[in-house]
Structures are given as structure tokens and as C-alpha cells.
């Protein structure tokens, strides 16, 4: 046993494109304190108040690639009131 097993429910925080470190994309209108902390930390980027279910939640610090972790969308759909159960997606564009 030379390598620890990574938990499979862990969100992907390493860029799938270049393997670089990433930061979290936060949506919504943050408080002033949060916005300042986000700017200082470099681990969080604030994307604004508009969010869609297809929006990414991670951004690579190196190449700028953005992606979405699977669990993120589920929580988001719930948050937006879109529902997760069958029969809730009858509206199409
Ligand atoms: Zn990258």
C-alpha cells in the first residue's frame, strides 16, 4: 500500500486539460466580505448572479479551462427549483 485511495465522491479539483490547480466558481451576489476574501484567496472566482444548470463550477488557474463536477449540477437543479425527479423536465426550447 504505497498510495492512498482517493475517495470516489471527491470533486475534481485538478484541471482535466493540463493537470493544473483550479479554483471554485461561485455564483450569486456575495457579501462585500466574501468578495474581498475571494479576491485575496485566489481560490475562488465570483461569476455573478446569473447561473444556469450547464455552467461550470471549477476554473483552471493555469489554462483557464472550466468544467463542472457531477454533484454540482444536482445541487444546483434543486436550488433552482427545477427538480430532480422524472416528469419535471417537460419544458423544452
Ligand atoms: Zn488547465
Question: How would you summarize the topology of this molecule?
Answer:
Elements: E1 22-27, H1 32-41, E2 44-48, E3 58-60, E4 66-67, H2 70-79
Parallel strand pairs: 1-2
Antiparallel strand pairs: 1-3, 3-4
The structure holds zinc ion.
Zinc ion is lined by residues 15, 17-18, 20, 60, 62-63, 65.
Q: Bound small molecules, which ones?
A: zinc ion
* Run of helices and strands: EHEEEH
Strand line-up in the sheet with most strands: 2-1-3-4
Residue share in β-strands? 15-25%
The helix tally amounts to 2
Task: Calculate Rg over CA atoms.
Answer: 16 Å
Low-confidence stretches: none
Structural class: alpha+beta
Shape: flat
Percent of residues in helices: 10-25%
Count of DSSP strands: 4
Largest sheet: 4 strands, mixed
Mean pLDDT: 78
Distance between the termini: 52 Å
Amino acid at each position: 500500500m504505497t498510495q492512498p485511495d482517493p475517495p470516489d465522491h471527491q470533486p475534481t479539483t485538478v484541471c482535466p486539460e493540463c493537470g493544473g490547480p483550479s479554483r471554485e466558481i461561485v455564483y450569486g451576489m456575495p457579501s462585500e466580505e466574501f468578495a474581498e476574501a475571494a479576491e485575496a484567496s485566489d481560490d475562488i472566482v465570483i461569476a455573478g448572479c446569473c447561473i444556469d444548470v450547464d455552467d461550470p463550477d471549477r476554473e483552471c488557474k493555469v489554462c483557464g479551462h472550466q468544467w463542472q463536477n457531477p454533484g454540482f449540477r444536482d445541487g444546483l437543479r434543486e436550488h433552482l427549483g427545477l427538480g430532480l425527479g422524472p416528469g419535471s423536465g417537460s419544458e423544452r426550447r
